[in-house]
Amino acid sequence: MPELTNRPYKTLAYKLGAWSCVLLMIYTLATILIVSLIGGPPQTVEECFNMLHQSRIRGFLRLDILTVFAMPLYFVLFYALYQSLKAIDNTLAALATVFIFAGVTIFLSAPSVFSYVKLSDAYWSAHTDAARSRFLAAAEAVLASDIWNGTGARISGLLVQTGAVTVSVLMLKSASFTKLTAYTGIFTHGLDLLHIAVAFFIPALANGMMGVAGVLYLLWFPLITIGLIKLSSVKQQS
Protein backbone atom coordinates (compact mmCIF):
# COMPACT_ATOMS: atom_id res chain seq x y z
CA MET A 1 0.00 0.00 0.00
CA PRO A 2 1.37 3.45 -0.86
CA GLU A 3 2.26 5.47 2.21
CA LEU A 4 0.40 8.71 2.79
CA THR A 5 2.98 10.67 4.75
CA ASN A 6 1.36 14.03 4.09
CA ARG A 7 -1.46 14.68 6.54
CA PRO A 8 -3.69 16.56 4.02
CA TYR A 9 -3.79 13.46 1.81
CA LYS A 10 -4.77 11.30 4.76
CA THR A 11 -7.47 13.77 5.67
CA LEU A 12 -8.76 13.61 2.09
CA ALA A 13 -8.79 9.80 2.23
CA TYR A 14 -10.83 9.87 5.45
CA LYS A 15 -13.31 12.40 4.03
CA LEU A 16 -13.75 10.44 0.83
CA GLY A 17 -14.19 7.27 2.87
CA ALA A 18 -16.86 8.96 4.98
CA TRP A 19 -18.73 10.14 1.89
CA SER A 20 -18.49 6.66 0.41
CA CYS A 21 -20.09 5.33 3.59
CA VAL A 22 -22.95 7.78 3.27
CA LEU A 23 -23.57 6.72 -0.34
CA LEU A 24 -23.36 3.03 0.61
CA MET A 25 -25.88 3.60 3.40
CA ILE A 26 -28.28 5.21 0.90
CA TYR A 27 -27.67 2.32 -1.50
CA THR A 28 -28.39 -0.25 1.22
CA LEU A 29 -31.64 1.43 2.20
CA ALA A 30 -32.66 1.73 -1.46
CA THR A 31 -31.93 -1.96 -2.06
CA ILE A 32 -34.05 -3.01 0.92
CA LEU A 33 -36.93 -0.89 -0.37
CA ILE A 34 -36.57 -2.22 -3.93
CA VAL A 35 -36.63 -5.86 -2.81
CA SER A 36 -39.58 -5.19 -0.48
CA LEU A 37 -41.68 -3.14 -2.91
CA ILE A 38 -40.65 -4.31 -6.39
CA GLY A 39 -39.01 -7.69 -5.88
CA GLY A 40 -35.64 -9.35 -6.00
CA PRO A 41 -33.72 -10.72 -8.98
CA PRO A 42 -35.77 -12.84 -11.40
CA GLN A 43 -35.43 -16.60 -11.06
CA THR A 44 -35.57 -17.52 -14.75
CA VAL A 45 -34.30 -15.95 -17.95
CA GLU A 46 -37.84 -15.89 -19.37
CA GLU A 47 -38.95 -13.80 -16.39
CA CYS A 48 -35.92 -11.57 -16.86
CA PHE A 49 -36.62 -10.96 -20.56
CA ASN A 50 -40.32 -10.28 -19.95
CA MET A 51 -39.48 -7.91 -17.12
CA LEU A 52 -37.00 -5.90 -19.20
CA HIS A 53 -39.43 -5.81 -22.12
CA GLN A 54 -42.31 -4.50 -20.01
CA SER A 55 -40.39 -1.95 -17.96
CA ARG A 56 -36.70 -1.22 -18.52
CA ILE A 57 -36.37 0.81 -15.30
CA ARG A 58 -38.08 -1.84 -13.17
CA GLY A 59 -35.87 -4.45 -14.80
CA PHE A 60 -32.71 -2.46 -14.06
CA LEU A 61 -33.68 -2.14 -10.40
CA ARG A 62 -34.57 -5.81 -9.93
CA LEU A 63 -31.39 -6.84 -11.74
CA ASP A 64 -29.39 -4.98 -9.10
CA ILE A 65 -27.95 -2.19 -11.22
CA LEU A 66 -27.42 -0.15 -8.04
CA THR A 67 -24.98 -2.76 -6.72
CA VAL A 68 -22.88 -2.57 -9.88
CA PHE A 69 -22.35 1.16 -9.32
CA ALA A 70 -22.13 0.98 -5.52
CA MET A 71 -19.43 -1.70 -5.20
CA PRO A 72 -16.54 0.51 -6.46
CA LEU A 73 -17.15 2.70 -3.40
CA TYR A 74 -15.63 -0.14 -1.36
CA PHE A 75 -12.24 0.72 -2.87
CA VAL A 76 -12.45 4.22 -1.40
CA LEU A 77 -13.95 3.17 1.94
CA PHE A 78 -11.54 0.37 2.74
CA TYR A 79 -8.50 2.31 1.58
CA ALA A 80 -9.46 4.96 4.14
CA LEU A 81 -9.91 2.25 6.79
CA TYR A 82 -6.53 0.79 5.89
CA GLN A 83 -4.93 4.18 6.49
CA SER A 84 -6.59 4.39 9.89
CA LEU A 85 -5.63 0.86 11.00
CA LYS A 86 -2.19 0.20 9.49
CA ALA A 87 -0.43 1.51 12.60
CA ILE A 88 -2.03 -1.30 14.62
CA ASP A 89 -0.95 -4.13 12.32
CA ASN A 90 0.18 -3.07 8.85
CA THR A 91 0.55 -6.62 7.51
CA LEU A 92 -2.91 -7.76 8.59
CA ALA A 93 -4.57 -4.49 7.55
CA ALA A 94 -2.88 -4.63 4.13
CA LEU A 95 -3.83 -8.30 3.62
CA ALA A 96 -7.46 -7.61 4.54
CA THR A 97 -7.55 -4.66 2.13
CA VAL A 98 -6.05 -6.74 -0.68
CA PHE A 99 -8.73 -9.41 -0.08
CA ILE A 100 -11.45 -6.78 -0.32
CA PHE A 101 -10.00 -5.12 -3.42
CA ALA A 102 -9.62 -8.51 -5.14
CA GLY A 103 -13.17 -9.49 -4.20
CA VAL A 104 -14.67 -6.29 -5.54
CA THR A 105 -12.68 -6.61 -8.78
CA ILE A 106 -13.88 -10.18 -9.28
CA PHE A 107 -17.45 -9.09 -8.61
CA LEU A 108 -17.30 -6.27 -11.15
CA SER A 109 -15.93 -8.63 -13.80
CA ALA A 110 -18.91 -11.01 -13.50
CA PRO A 111 -21.84 -10.77 -15.95
CA SER A 112 -24.54 -8.42 -14.69
CA VAL A 113 -27.57 -6.42 -15.74
CA PHE A 114 -25.97 -5.15 -18.95
CA SER A 115 -25.47 -8.69 -20.28
CA TYR A 116 -29.16 -9.44 -19.74
CA VAL A 117 -30.23 -6.20 -21.41
CA LYS A 118 -28.29 -6.96 -24.58
CA LEU A 119 -29.62 -10.51 -24.78
CA SER A 120 -33.17 -9.38 -24.00
CA ASP A 121 -33.11 -6.81 -26.79
CA ALA A 122 -31.77 -9.41 -29.21
CA TYR A 123 -34.41 -11.93 -28.05
CA TRP A 124 -37.33 -9.58 -28.69
CA SER A 125 -35.86 -8.51 -32.05
CA ALA A 126 -35.47 -12.10 -33.25
CA HIS A 127 -37.93 -13.27 -35.92
CA THR A 128 -37.65 -17.03 -35.50
CA ASP A 129 -38.12 -19.44 -32.61
CA ALA A 130 -34.70 -20.91 -33.31
CA ALA A 131 -33.03 -17.53 -32.88
CA ARG A 132 -34.95 -16.86 -29.69
CA SER A 133 -33.90 -20.25 -28.35
CA ARG A 134 -30.25 -19.34 -28.91
CA PHE A 135 -30.63 -16.12 -26.94
CA LEU A 136 -32.41 -17.97 -24.13
CA ALA A 137 -29.56 -20.49 -24.00
CA ALA A 138 -27.00 -17.67 -23.89
CA ALA A 139 -28.93 -16.03 -21.06
CA GLU A 140 -28.98 -19.33 -19.15
CA ALA A 141 -25.18 -19.34 -19.34
CA VAL A 142 -25.10 -15.77 -18.01
CA LEU A 143 -27.49 -16.72 -15.19
CA ALA A 144 -25.14 -19.49 -14.09
CA SER A 145 -22.16 -17.12 -13.90
CA ASP A 146 -23.67 -13.77 -12.94
CA ILE A 147 -23.19 -11.62 -9.82
CA TRP A 148 -25.60 -13.77 -7.80
CA ASN A 149 -24.97 -17.36 -8.88
CA GLY A 150 -21.50 -17.69 -10.39
CA THR A 151 -18.37 -19.09 -8.81
CA GLY A 152 -16.73 -15.68 -9.14
CA ALA A 153 -19.56 -14.08 -7.19
CA ARG A 154 -19.19 -16.54 -4.33
CA ILE A 155 -15.40 -16.21 -4.22
CA SER A 156 -15.84 -12.44 -4.34
CA GLY A 157 -18.19 -12.55 -1.36
CA LEU A 158 -15.83 -14.75 0.63
CA LEU A 159 -12.88 -12.44 -0.03
CA VAL A 160 -14.74 -9.20 0.72
CA GLN A 161 -16.42 -10.44 3.88
CA THR A 162 -13.27 -12.15 5.21
CA GLY A 163 -11.36 -8.91 4.71
CA ALA A 164 -14.14 -6.85 6.30
CA VAL A 165 -14.30 -9.11 9.36
CA THR A 166 -10.53 -8.79 9.73
CA VAL A 167 -10.76 -4.99 9.50
CA SER A 168 -13.49 -5.02 12.15
CA VAL A 169 -11.33 -7.13 14.48
CA LEU A 170 -8.47 -4.65 14.08
CA MET A 171 -10.88 -1.87 15.10
CA LEU A 172 -11.09 -3.44 18.56
CA LYS A 173 -7.53 -2.23 19.11
CA SER A 174 -8.08 1.21 17.60
CA ALA A 175 -8.87 4.36 19.56
CA SER A 176 -10.34 5.88 16.41
CA PHE A 177 -13.39 3.60 16.40
CA THR A 178 -15.73 2.61 19.19
CA LYS A 179 -16.16 -0.95 20.41
CA LEU A 180 -19.74 -0.75 19.13
CA THR A 181 -18.41 -0.03 15.64
CA ALA A 182 -16.00 -2.97 15.80
CA TYR A 183 -18.51 -5.49 17.16
CA THR A 184 -21.21 -4.33 14.73
CA GLY A 185 -18.77 -4.89 11.88
CA ILE A 186 -17.76 -8.33 13.15
CA PHE A 187 -21.37 -9.42 13.48
CA THR A 188 -22.57 -7.82 10.22
CA HIS A 189 -19.77 -9.07 7.98
CA GLY A 190 -19.52 -12.34 9.88
CA LEU A 191 -23.20 -13.00 9.23
CA ASP A 192 -22.76 -12.06 5.58
CA LEU A 193 -19.75 -14.41 5.36
CA LEU A 194 -21.66 -17.26 7.03
CA HIS A 195 -24.64 -16.86 4.71
CA ILE A 196 -22.41 -17.65 1.71
CA ALA A 197 -21.50 -21.03 3.19
CA VAL A 198 -25.04 -21.78 4.39
CA ALA A 199 -26.46 -20.98 0.93
CA PHE A 200 -24.97 -24.21 -0.44
CA PHE A 201 -27.10 -26.30 1.93
CA ILE A 202 -30.06 -24.23 3.21
CA PRO A 203 -30.81 -21.40 0.76
CA ALA A 204 -33.89 -20.18 2.68
CA LEU A 205 -31.88 -19.76 5.90
CA ALA A 206 -29.08 -18.03 3.98
CA ASN A 207 -31.55 -15.53 2.53
CA GLY A 208 -32.80 -14.76 6.04
CA MET A 209 -29.25 -14.25 7.29
CA MET A 210 -28.51 -11.94 4.37
CA GLY A 211 -31.64 -9.94 5.19
CA VAL A 212 -30.53 -9.45 8.79
CA ALA A 213 -27.03 -8.46 7.67
CA GLY A 214 -28.55 -5.97 5.23
CA VAL A 215 -30.37 -4.21 8.04
CA LEU A 216 -27.24 -4.19 10.20
CA TYR A 217 -25.34 -2.37 7.45
CA LEU A 218 -27.65 0.57 8.15
CA LEU A 219 -26.03 0.74 11.59
CA TRP A 220 -22.46 -0.11 10.56
CA PHE A 221 -22.14 2.51 7.81
CA PRO A 222 -23.15 5.47 10.05
CA LEU A 223 -20.77 4.30 12.78
CA ILE A 224 -17.91 4.07 10.29
CA THR A 225 -18.84 7.47 8.89
CA ILE A 226 -18.63 9.05 12.34
CA GLY A 227 -15.23 7.45 12.96
CA LEU A 228 -13.79 8.63 9.66
CA ILE A 229 -15.14 12.15 10.12
CA LYS A 230 -13.46 12.33 13.53
CA LEU A 231 -10.20 11.10 12.00
CA SER A 232 -10.38 13.73 9.27
CA SER A 233 -10.73 16.48 11.85
CA VAL A 234 -7.84 15.37 14.09
CA LYS A 235 -4.82 17.61 13.75
CA GLN A 236 -1.59 15.66 13.64
CA GLN A 237 1.88 16.28 12.38
CA SER A 238 2.73 14.64 9.09
Short description:
By secondary structure, this protein is mainly α.
Task: Give the topology, please.
Blueprint: H1 7-37, H2 45-54, H3 56-62, H4 65-70, H5 73-85, H6 90-109, H7 113-125, H8 129-145, H9 151-171, H10 179-198, H11 203-233
Word description of this protein:
- The protein has 238 residues and is mostly helical.
- It has one domain (7-233).
- The protein is built from eleven helices and no strands.
- The protein has helices at residues 7-37, 45-54, 56-62, 65-70, 73-85, 90-109, 113-125, 129-145, 151-171, 179-198, 203-233.
- α5 (73-85) runs antiparallel to α6.
- The longest helix has 31 residues, at 7-37.
- The radius of gyration is 20 Å and the shape is elongated.
- The model is unreliable at 1-5 (pLDDT under 50).
Characteristic key phrases:
single chain, 238 residues, mainly alpha, disordered N terminus
* Quaternary status: single chain
Number of helices: 11
**Helices and strands, in N-to-C order?**
HHHHHHHHHHH
Rg over alpha carbons: 20 Å
Number of discrete domains: 1
Main pleated-sheet profile: none
Structural class: mainly alpha
